[in-house]
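Q: What does the assembled structure look like for these inputs?
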Amino acid sequence: MKFVNPDLITPIYVKARNDMPWPEEEQAFYLLARDGLFFCRNSRFFQSCVPARKGPGELANQEAFLEIQYPKIPQPLLELAVGFFEQVKQRHGSEAALLLTWNYRVKQVRLLIPRQRCTVYQGYYSTYPAGVHYEMPAELPEDAFIFGDIHSHVDGPAYASVTDKDDEHHRPGLHIVVGRIAEEPPDFHIEATVDGMRFEVDPDHVLEGYSRRTAVSEKCLDPVEIVDLAASQNDRDKDVTVYTVKYPVKVEYRSGKKNQEIPSHKSRSKNGPDPS
Ligand SMILES: [Zn+2]
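A:
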């Protein structure tokens, strides 16, 4: 089917059916099909159809964009998330992850602790966090919708690692990384993914604020346990320890209630240099 537009010098054909006749009368034309946009030629000695690197030059420009309207993460909830990451670090030396959920009924952001597997390398002198992989909950609390996740890089910088990008490729939503959690405030890095594309997000757009981390309750930490400690230490990968965090535990806060602070972290001057 020929798409007719007076601005187009080179015509565009839309291939809506497999048996669409080849436009023999055109010297050159674009073909839009399920597999993308193609540039085609009818020459004296050949007919060709190759993927087009760009659309017709007569058309207007269009750049990829993402405009977000995510709810802001309440400050007490973010402070609890950082507290949770620090407590997991103190207990296991590992990264950890939380899911961001939106509750339709009460219109509130909430955190969920998913079932997750954290990898830690055991060195001669200390342990090194190596990654976290979580499972999407099979059953969500009623009226809840997952719109993103937060995970820690422990004392490493906050950025989207290659592993993060792979993990998040098919998880559209907001992805927050908390790094350098020994410092206060820690580093935050936020990206959003949609249809396989990543966009950096200004923290001011999705974080209500942050002052100091607060401790999560024992109820939240109790389900964090070590499993398969020996089983994972095989010949090929003998330094790896695997932890599993049980699922699911809601991390909630009550407005007006003073949460307990976690004292064991370095303070970072807001005027000081950022870590590279
Ligand atoms: Zn990461």
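The radius of gyration is 25 Å.
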